[in-house]
Design a protein that fits this description.
Chain lengths: 180, 163
């Protein structure tokens, strides 16, 4: 399925969960399908989605969903090891894997030849889900984290505008909402 | 005051409750103190850049954060400091063991040792070089407030002569 469809399906099933979303088109697509005060849209620092998610999960009690990409995860593979070792029960890492760098012209990543789920398995993640056609988060939202969710999606970006929020606005809104 | 104890006390006075670390031989004692402290969440990380990302998330979640690292790791962290911390105006206290400074016996430390102040300048990150442990403790105790109000990382460089 198209990545924006996967994002829509994910967003529809989230209510109270806090979301950290990867830079580039993933954040733009999420913003377009469903904006929420629970969303932190990354605009820079590719690779950091899973780490920001981990820090947020460890800092407070609400469930955290990090929406990451294959290219981004490959930049920060050590993150999987840290996440496993810190063992946050309230953390779900979703990799939307289109096997390419979507926001720079869809050049292939090594996710074409390397299965990211098997890396998570080798690191020691106990809860790993590989989804393709049916994005059902019911069980995923119930089990103890950290959860690794691997979703294969088509290459290609939706025709969605740039997020019309300033970085500070995104941050302030998110923090204010958390403190309410 | 003993040097490691002074840094630890300074962090406590600042209210720091979330620390990521990557060891430097000079930070060994401080890391142990932080790790043993039940009031501080301590996360050892695999790379400094990752550590900054984790601290950003922790800050969003309400924590007061610091990173304990060797200055060499600054080189691995330029983008996250610019495109996450500076862009979103997020605070953090950076405690850098500054290798490659006067007294350094390992020549491999010199290139990053020399580049460190310039890299911090390029990122417009204010830094402080305490001369005594008392200096360090005092400066750190106000560092979080400074960092948060200024919307910018602040760094403390602990040169070889400090220990």
């Amino acid at each position: 399925m198209k990545r924006i469809t996967a994002i829509k399906r994910i967003a529809e099933q989230l209510e109270d969960e806090l979301v950290i979303c990867n830079i580039g088109f993933p954040s733009r697509e999420l913003y377009a399908v469903k904006d929420s005060v629970n969303h932190f849209y990354m605009l820079g620092s590719m690779g950091m989605a899973s780490s920001i998610g981990l820090g947020l999960a460890m800092a407070q009690k609400r469930k955290v969903v990090a929406i990451d990409g294959d290219g981004s995860l490959l930049m920060n593979l050590g993150s999987l090891v840290t996440i496993f070792n810190q063992d946050p029960k309230n953390f779900i890492l979703i990799i939307l894997d289109n096997e390419c760098y979507g926001s720079t012209g869809s050049q292939c990543t090594y996710a074409t030849t390397v299965d990211l789920s098997r890396i998570a398995e080798a690191v020691g993640f106990r809860n790993i889900y590989s989804l393709k056609e049916n994005i059902d988060l019911k069980e995923i939202l119930k089990v103890d984290g950290p959860v690794f969710v691997h979703v294969k999606v088509e290459a290609g970006n939706a025709d969605v505008p740039v997020i019309d929020m300033e970085p500070e606005e995104i941050k302030e809104r998110f923090i204010e909402n958390l403190n309410r | 005051m003993e040097s490691s104890q002074a840094v630890y006390q300074g962090l406590k006075k600042a209210g720091i409750d979330f620390v990521v670390s990557l060891p430097c031989v000079n930070l060994g004692k401080i890391i142990k103190m932080v790790d043993c402290d039940p009031d501080i969440i301590h996360v050892p990380v695999t790379r400094e850049e990752e550590g900054f990302g984790i601290c950003a998330g922790a800050y969003l979640g309400g924590k007061k954060t610091a990173i304990l690292m060797q200055n060499s790791g600054l080189g691995n962290s330029v983008n996250v400091l610019a495109s996450l911390f500076k862009l979103y105006q997020m605070p953090i206290i950076m405690i850098l063991s500054h290798r490659g400074t006067e007294g350094e016996f390992m020549s491999a430390q010199i290139p990053m040792g020399e580049a460190t102040p310039d890299v911090l300048d390029a990122l417009e990150i204010a830094y402080f070089l305490p001369e005594t442990p008392e200096d360090a403790c005092k400066a750190l105790s106000g560092a979080w407030l400074l960092s948060e109000m200024g919307g910018s990382a602040v760094a403390m460089l602990l040169e070889i002569s400090f220990w």
